[in-house]
Amino acid sequence: MSKHLISSADLSRAEVEDILETAASMHDLQRREVKKVPTLRGRTIINFFFEDSTRTRSSFEIAGKWMSADTINLSAKGSSTSKGESLRDTAMTVDAMAVDALVIRHNASGACHQVAQWVRCSVINAGDGTHEHPTQALLDAYTLRTRLGDLDGKHIVIVGDLTHSRVFRSNVITLKTLGARVTVVAPPTLMPSGIGAWSAADGFSTSWDLDAVLGGDDPVDAVMMLRVQRERMSGGYFPTAREYTVGYGLTRDRLDRLVARNADVLVLHPGPMNRGLEIAPEAADAPQSVVLDQVSAGVAVRMAVLYHLLAGDDAPATTATTEGVVR
Amino acid sequence: MTCPDLSEPATSSSTPADARDVMTEGDISRALRRIGHEILERNKGSEGLVLLGIPSRGVPLARRLAACIEDVEGAEIPVGELDITLHRDDLRRHPVRTAHRSRIPAAGIDDKVVVLVDDVLYSGRTIRAALDALSELGRPRAVRLAVLVDRGHRELPIRADHVGKNLPTSRDERVHVRVAELDGIDVVRISGGEGR
């Protein structure tokens, strides 16, 4: 595995499967009385969040702590960034403290890629602008695999604001890496331009009509609802919230029709949910909903990612490795 | 930066041409039966016994040992597997290994007599990691160690309670344990070293 995790496309199928396998053993740890292993003792991980976050940040922090790494949280507010320090200077300052990994969330797409060019430590993308969020895609894949088994040929539908969604971008890549078929649904105004070029690839299709996809000939194994990002909704993408719900929300009625066709269909949402907007409360709390499984998988998957990036001899600052017979 | 392929463990599935057999299928099965009896004798019966195999080849060996004991006692012996990857002390010296799930019998290990089962005892570092992993899962009444082959060269103060065969080796030799469940054949071979 490479030193950084910037994009879901950095991971081969074998690497994704290794991470998910490791995540399963980490998940067992979560149910134990003593939730701690010594694996990353002596490693330091900095969570640098330039954007607000509850679950990603806390799960990265817990993941590091349960593996005995020292984790430190920084946010833009309250750090030198608020005094006008540039991203490059901030990153290099932190790197100079000999940390092992920098987990970054930033509102600019490509920020993590850029930081990775400047620092020696590992860089993990915890969401950059509207680009990618690879650990979210891994935890979604983990949740799906726990319920559906092998994802080869499974049909996953992703619905919502695709234009601004890093979750969607990473998910499409990871799901396709694992052999799933993905249909993405969005109103025309929130369909990314150029997505037509993606559709060429097999197992990937796009639609403007949610009901046609959910009721179509191709049975649906899981529906992933994306959050309507109110903070990015100033562009007049749809007339009213009500109209969005009617066209693209997972309403009670749509859920009932889905369940009638496949009682084991799964409902995912990366959170935080806008109940009553993109997902009805009945759908969010339905037995088919695995929203809390996703949160619980988040810690296990992030432990696995930290483990695969930091535990081995490819880790940073070990340029002078001692070669020789070890076993 | 990409990392090299995962290095094969000492018990790789290809055997060099200079390998010679040191235990046959019959030897292995007799050794396991004897160890089964020793465990029972030491424990004064099968009360509270739990066998935990250390992956990969310790796991089928633990299952067979349990079957041997069940043959004698008639009672069912809980068998599990203990993955020690997260507790290894050489993680930083190798490319990352995938961690696997441990499977611990439902009744747990608290106040049980846990017998760790592995194929080869060498430096003792695997067992040290296993003891650490075990302490996170509970508090057994006692922990014992059964191995098919003890090849010496300990680097830690660890010894086995039950040994299938003591095999004096030099450090540049390699011991290959094959089990039918994983490799299709039961055999222990030695290769390398100053051809004897």
Please tell me about this protein's structure.
The complex is a heterodimer of chains A (327) and B (196). Chain A is an alpha/beta fold. In chain A, 39% of the residues lie in helices and 14% in strands. Chain A has helices at residues 13-30, 55-66, 87-95, 111-118, 134-148, 166-177, 195-199, 210-214, 241-248, 252-261, 281-284, 291-310; strands spanning 44-49, 70-75, 101-106, 122-128, 155-159, 181-185, 204-207, 222-225, 266-268. In chain A, the strands form 2 sheets. Chain A has a 5-stranded parallel β-sheet. A 4-stranded parallel β-sheet of chain A has the order 2-1-3-4, sandwiched between helices. In chain A, helix 2 links the parallel strand 1 and strand 2. In chain A, helix 1 (13-30) packs across helix 5. Chain B has one domain (20-90, 99-192): Rossmann fold (3-Layer(aba) Sandwich), CATH 3.40.50.2020. In chain B, the strands form 2 sheets. In chain B, strands 3-2-4-5-6 form a 5-stranded parallel β-sheet, with helices on both faces. Chain B is globular. In chain B, 39% of the residues are buried. At the A-B interface, helix 1 and helix 12 of A face helix 3 of B.
Topology:
The complex is a heterodimer of chains A (327) and B (196).
Chain A: H1 13-30, E1 44-49, H2 55-66, E2 70-75, H3 87-95, E3 101-106, H4 111-118, E4 122-128, H5 134-148, E5 155-159, H6 166-177, E6 181-185, H7 195-199, E7 204-207, H8 210-214, E8 222-225, H9 241-248, H10 252-261, E9 266-268, H11 281-284, H12 291-310
Parallel strand pairs in A: 1-2, 1-3, 3-4, 5-6, 5-8, 6-7, 8-9
Helix pairs in contact in A: 1-5, 1-12, 2-12, 5-6, 5-12
Chain B: E1 20-23, H1 25-43, E2 49-53, H2 58-73, E3 79-81, E4 113-121, H3 125-137, E5 142-150, E6 162-166, E7 173-178, H4 180-183, E8 187-192
Parallel strand pairs in B: 2-3, 2-4, 4-5, 5-6
Antiparallel strand pairs in B: 1-8, 7-8
Helix pairs in contact in B: 1-2
